[in-house]
Each structure stands twice: as C-alpha cells, then as structure tokens.
Design a protein that fits this description.
The protein is of the alpha+beta class. The chain is 26% helix and 38% strand. The protein contains 4 helices and 9 strands, in the order βαββαββαβαβββ. Strands 2-6-5-4-7 form a 5-stranded antiparallel sheet. A 4-stranded antiparallel sheet has the order 3-1-8-9, with helices on one face. Strand 8 and strand 9 form a beta hairpin. Helix 2 packs across helix 3. The chain is globular and about 45 Å long.
Length: 190
Amino acid sequence: MKKESKTIRSFLAIDLAEDLKPEIADVQKEFKKTGANIKYVPSQNMHFTLKFFGNIDENMVEEISEAVEKVIRNYSSFDLSIGGCGSFPNQNTIKVLWIGIDSNSQIADLQKDLDMEFKKLGFKKERNYISHLTIGRPRNGKNKKQMKDTINSLKDLKIGTMRVSKISLKKSTLTPQGPIYEDIKVFNLD
C-alpha cells in the first residue's frame, strides 16, 4: 500500500544574523512612530527568501535538496551588506516594508543559479527577483504619508554586514498569530 504524502508550505532562505536583529528592531521602531497600522515581522522570522515554493508534496523535499546541493557546490561563504529601506510594489501602494542589500552581493547569482535548477523540477522562474528583508506589512493606508517620509529618510540606511555560511529549506505553518517557520534541511556553504 502506497504511503499517503502530505503537502507542506515551504521556501528556501538565508536567516538574518542574530547580531543585526537589534538594528532591524530600531528600524521597526521608526515605523511605529508613524502611527500606521503595520503588522511587523518578528525577529525570529526574519530572512532573505531565495525561493518561495508554496505548497509542495513532502516527497519533493529530496529533489529540492539535491538541486540546492548541486548549485551550492559552486559557492562558498560570502558577506552580505544590509541597508537601505523601501516598499513593494511602490510608495503609492505600500504592501511590504523592506530593508535591502548591496547590489554587488553574490546572493543574486546564487538565486539565479538555484532558480535554473528549480525550473527543471517544474517550478516557475522568478521574475524581477529583488533580495530583501521584509520587516512589516501595512494592513491599510493609514498614515501613508508618514510611512513614505520614513522610507525616504531611511533609504540610505546602513545596517551592517553578515556572513552567509548556510541556507535553509523551511516549512511555514500558517497560524492566526502569524507563520511559524521550521528548518526542514540546512545546507552549509563551504
């Protein structure tokens, strides 16, 4: 008898370094001063997404893992300079508040190489990938001008540098209190 498989909501990510979390919390405090209705990302959930898979059959975990291992053979640990602030999709319609990274980072090449392998597994290719750290999601347009002013005042913000030495395949369980992330598999960059 064939074992029934489950689906899991999953993504591939780089976790934010612990020592940078206080600086990110300070940025969130700046947005709290605006009085806008924002749902903030808790520090334990902060990450840079490399690929969002959505709901996958748990049997796909092995295939995804093999694809990741194939790609990361060509990579070693690298530094990520974090800074700047912005919003998606734009400042007139603010759905996501984010902190960015230095555009010269290896993360873009890593993501592109991973995406090529994931496409072979049937996943859609990412369009216009922009690596970012989501810090909050406005629930509505309340105090949008103050949010825009804060974004603009922080656009040249420098947070710091972190060493990227591993990436994680994560399971996301949605709850009324927010998502709970668990590592399914961690891949080390040598």
